[in-house]
Amino acid sequence: MVDHFMDKSYRQQLSLSDRQYRFYDIAAYLADHGQDVETVPYSVRVLLEEALRHADKDPERQSVLTAFNDWDNAHDQDIPHQPERVILQDLTGVPALVDLAAMRDAVAQQGGDVNKINPEVPVHLVIDHSVQVDHSGNDEAFSYNIQQEFKRNRERYTFLKWAQNSFENLTVIPPDTGIIHQVNLEYLADVIHAKQLDDGSYEAFPDTLVGTDSHTTMINGLGVLGWGVGGIEAESSMLGEATYMPMPKVVGVKLTGQLSEGITATDLALALTHLLREHGVVGKFVEFYGDGVETLPLAYRATIANMAPEYGATCGFFPIDDQTISYLKLTNRPAETIELVTAYAKANHFFYTPNADRHYSETDSLDLGSVQSSVAGPNRPQDTVYLKDMPKQFDDRRDLPDYPVTVDQHDFNIRVGSLGIAAITSCTNTSNPQVLLAAGLIAKKAVALGLKVPSYVKTSLAPGSRVVTQYLQASGLQPYLDQLGFNLVGYGCTTCIGNSGQLKEDLQSRVSADPYPLAAVESGNRNFEGRVNPLIKDTYLASPPLVVIYALAGTCDIDLTSQPVGTAQDGQPVYLKDLWPSDQEVADLNDKYLKPGEFQKNYDSILNQNQTWNDLPAPKSATYDWDANSTYIAAPPFFDGVAGEKQLSGLRVLAKLGDSITTDHISPAGYIGSQTPAGRYLKQKGIAAKDFNSYGSRRGNHEVMMRGTLANIRLRNQLTPDKTGGYTRYLPTGEEMAIFDAAQKYQADGTGLVVLAGKDYGMGSSRDWAAKGVKLLGVKAIIAQSFERIHRANLAMMGVLPLQFLPGENADSLGLDGTETFKINVDGQTAHVAAERDGHTTTFDATVRFDTPADWTY
């Protein structure tokens, strides 16, 4: 095969306007190996093109091509992946850049050239995860929140300016510009990339990327293959290194028919999340096809692709088609880019062909006409709840008493299901003009009828792009949203990432003293317990128009199909049907106010429109000048040359956990409590509680982050069944204490640690600190029933063993209660485990989840 490849070139030329582009003909290669390109999924075609291109330039990569000769029988073969660019957000990007700065220090100490530590591919870091909803519900909220954001994060932002000035190929997009994935969708992605080669000629190939945020998958809605990775893997990609992955299985999902009147992209995304979680797509590609795909505007596809981590897939891919081209025109992409995308995609078989007989590893289907209005919750995105069934969510708590609160000089009785937060937030939905215009139309009708949002509900609007504000203002809808309290609070992730701020006045103090099952509704993508706000247990994901509806009702404990949302000023009940706009109303506004000029106005000045950012100092130096007293930025210990450990015996259990342990549980992003180990550390450093900021903002400091590991207040460690939060038992004495404190005692004893867990360990955000943190606590292995893709890779890269129970086994079935002493012997892909308790030893085997050669290297 290699000789055949060497004897034949698959290079072709594409002539456009005044320029010629070289490209690699995937159809010709497949034909030479007995395959018809039309039978191969589009996502696999992208991987094949990359393999062809690199094999032509690097003979050592030619052997990889054999995996594509029969791709669906090659899932045991590893293929290199070298994305063309990397995107970062600030919470995960800062620690990645801190690591690069530390690498430069290590090179300098060895007398090397520090400038060799530079990104080799374009890297964009979008600052979007730091703004918090300190104020909301008024016209001053936006400016106040920005002021507080810069006050809290000045040191971090100055570091990012240093990084931009000191590293090549790094562009930092300033705060309060937009959310990373919406900026990527509307501006950064070019779909087909044109690269000038050393000889001056041009080469065209598909845009591909990885990002340090799990929802990087949103870009697959545009026909760009990309997914989230941990910071460690992103650093490797930034430095031009290939990472390895098994040839993916591809699940083809056939969409048929069309959505019914009033059904939103959010409803569809939630339906698919439920369907695909049940199907089982973890670690697989999902690719959408069928006549239903052609009916979906690109913004709908982006919402669906965004939620790939929630349905468990590596990506949810939509091939390039006419909707893609229309979106590129709408968002004011250059004419030459649109010409190249169209011509290349058609010439090289990346343009969607209906009714082709493509082969998929597995298939599933959904009739779009069957999708109903729904929300998801209370704590998992895949748990669909139809509107009529919402009251059933609270049946088991109706015996809890009401309690009175006073907010804005109004008295209310708070009961089960009462809303503490209603937030229009997250790029998942704010990238979709249809649902935002629908929310605005509902607000307009509600105001006309005299409806108001109860003042105990904290309302907010945080778009993923300034373009949203432009069309909401131009259409005249923003003033109505303002009257209901959905004022602009910032352009960033806010509530979706847990930066929701405090609840309303008396409600905050009352709930803090007497925890009560308040609810939240948000247009985000994740609702894990305690994520949105530590005082809110139940969070429901909903479309922006439904967020407004539930806010007006003041509760989630309502059947919107039969019960009134509120009472009009004339005393008549107002129902959902009285407020919900028609699809035509929304379409008319969309066509009138969403124009390419709006995108041009925003993105022409994207790098300099934030004057506060412009005024920050911009240091430049080959190495970073670390401040030993900083509680934000510190040189990490990961490059200190610690030798690998051979002996895995005498291990004790730090935590015994259940199913669906998220990276939020392992490494929370939000509030730092004053009595937590991290809070105590910051107080010792002279930081007042009001200035603690969040765990996410302090990811550049390992001292804070290791203390925050396994510190989520909703964590349930079975070693301390009577407590929730970051507690464990120090097993030699049985004493209960904070997990960090116990880990320190174990390290002082020279005792290594293990964590026992159930299914889906590490689901959720891509955050690498969930792996870094347990590593620094002294954890040698995680033994779980299953792992989510990104977190498994992060554990491997940090040298923490991900061990998976054999099918049919788990900690409970083996009789493990967490008080055992463990010995682990790794023998290839199998680990032989012995757990001793009270003189009795339980032995079992587990699978070593080192899935690629690179995992063993780490």
TrEMBL record:
One of its GO terms (biological process) is tricarboxylic acid cycle. Pathway: Carbohydrate metabolism; tricarboxylic acid cycle; isocitrate from oxaloacetate: step 2/2. Keywords: 4Fe-4S, Iron, Iron-sulfur, Lyase, Metal-binding. Gene3D superfamilies: 6.10.190.10, Aconitase, domain 3, Aconitase, domain 4. Residues 680-806 form the Aconitase A/isopropylmalate dehydratase small subunit swivel domain. Monomer. Belongs to the aconitase/IPM isomerase family. This is Aconitate hydratase.
